Structure formats: structure tokens, C-alpha cells
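U., I forgot to send this yesterday:
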Amino acid sequence: MKGRQYHRKFLQPLNTALLYLALFRPDAAIIAFLSYLVGVQLAGGAIALLDIGIAALVSLVSTNFIYTCNSVADWKEDIVAHPNRPIPSQRLSPDHARRYATGLLFISVLYPLLVGRGPTTVGLFLLLPILGLAYSAQPVRLRRWPGFAIVVISIGLVTPITLGALMTDPRAQIFPVTAALFMFCVSVVPLKAVEEVAEDQSTGRPNLYSRHGLRLFLWTAAGLSVMTAVAILKTDGPIRNFLVAAALGALMCMVLFSFKKNKSGIYATIIRVVIFEGVVLFFFLDT
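Result:
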């Protein structure tokens, strides 16, 4: 009996922590973490424990705040679209989640002042929580307008790799890579609309897929073509191979899903492919 009680006391804090972390997204955590470390490698740095620690802060604090802030702002909408998430499923109260988000915001503003290496990197660190507030919080709430939302998401996705490079070497030539990745994101992120049709209909938000149908795929294909050209012309080495492979992987997913009646899942599939390619790049750069 005492053993069971001890077991429960031990597991309760862990379960609570996992519940708060469930406001985040595993794919976003992996992308932010790896992106920062790839940025370190691209700037010629050897990954040290400090780099891993900062990458963890970028992922588990700054990027986590972006997604947690959105979960708090959208929990009523998630009752319809994502009922199994912590707040709509009533496993976590909105007030507790809001306090957790406030704590993440405080830390995401504080730690850059301690680890940043100059105004540029401090500004990039602070850009992440600013993007989170601009995307989800009133009165700005750019999530209401698809065009602005896509740009905000894309900037947030390319910031960690830029940070990793500039924290390693302020003179690092990372911006061609950042530009190509931004084009990739602006091309692919609109496909999220395919999976958000019901959610947007229930909230009255405009949905790009409902509005444009398969023409949205043409936008993505055109954007990926431009991004591939930029990658080939302006980058080299393994990162160029990764960028081209990411574009081809996304195009292949689009071709496969174009034959499906239900195209929901295309964005998530592309993200999984890019994560796999990113892991391969990370270990290839490290050799």
C-alpha cells in the first residue's frame, strides 16, 4: 500500500509537467531545437553543452510560449476542432494554462539578456515571444488574417537557425539559407488550411483552401520552385542538398495527396518528411 502511494506521489508531478508540455507540439519542439544546432554547425561551430542548453531554451521556452499562448487564446475554438487538447478536455484549467504561459513569457524575455551576444542576437531571441503575442493575443491577433499569419509562422520557423549561426559567429553568412527556408515556409505553411477547414468554418475565419481549392497547391509548387532556384544559386554544400531535398519531398507529398479524396494530413506529412531530412542533415554536418 505504501509502495503504491509513493508511486503515485512520484508520478503526479511528472504527469502534471507532461500535461503542461502537451500545450506545445512535439514537431515544433524538434524543429526549433535541431534548427538552432544546425545554425551552430553552419557557422563553423562545434556543438558544445552550452549550445545544447541554449537550443533547449529556444525550443522549450521561447517556441513553447508561442504555442502555449495560442493554446490559451484558442481553447474555446479547440472544443470543436481539437477536443482532446489539455484545456478543452478539462484536464487543465484556462487559468492555470494562462499562468504557465505568463511564466514562459517572463523567462523568454529574461534569458536572452543573459546569453545573447550583442543587440542582433538579443533582438532575435526577443522576436520569438513578440511573434507569439502578435499571432494569438488581442488586440493584434494576426491569426485572424491568413496572409499575416503565414508570414508570422514562417519568421518564427526560420529564427532558431539564424540565431544558432549568429550566436556562433556574428559574421556568419546565414541569410541566404534563412531566405530559402523562409520561402519554403511561406510556400508550405498555407497547406495547413487543408487541415483547418472545419475549425475555420466553426469560428468564421477565412480559410485559404476553402477559398482557393487546388489552386493553393499551385501556389506551393510555384513557391517551392523559386525556393529551389535560390537554394541552388545562393547556397552550397550539405545545406543546399537539404533545401533541395526538402522542396522535392514537399512536392512529392503534394503529388501523392493530389490523388486522395481526403487531402487532410498533407501538411503534417510534409513536416514529418522535413524533420527526417533535418535529422539526416544534422548528423551529416556533424561528421
